[in-house]
Amino acid sequence: MSKRIFPHRCAFTLLIPLRNIFLSPAQVIDRLMLKDDMTVLEVGPGPGYFSVKVASILSRGRLVIVDIQPEMLRLSEKRLKKRGIANVDSHLCNGTTFDFQDESFDRIFMVAVLGEVENQASYMTEFHRLLKRGGILSISELVGDPDKMTVQSMKELGADSGLSFHRHYGNMWNYTVNFLKE
Length: 182
Prior knowledge:
- The protein has 182 residues and is α/β, with parallel strands linked by helices.
- Helix content is 27%, strand content 26%.
- It has a 7-stranded mixed sheet, sandwiched between helices.
- It is globular and about 40 Å long.
């Protein structure tokens, strides 16, 4: 399933505001090119650091969060509920497949997650299946992550799954790579 899963007992470290220096929720939203009526999948939300702001943008849409750790989902749900955000569904996933219909999402995003996944090619194939035509898969990586992937390895995974490289944001330490389903 996973190489090295970020421990839920350390989730509080993912909420430290200094994290904005590397990647802020506003940057994620900008890079996703969100519209208020989209359906968005966040893979590995941790305690919901990005979830709150993304869901807030989706006034007529929905955010779906998935994680393999029930504890992380509970933390995200608690954070969202505390802020009165109700347009979010959460699902426990098995680390291999996602139990959603084909072409369910306008956007899929993850931050510092794909490097932890054992079978990355299967995930990418699933993302291709889940994205609507014209949909974007956005993968962000951050400095300090021991499982950080290279841009080149992400591009290869994207191409192998049928996704087209769309755009690269950031620098060599902190970056986002977007793929498009054509």
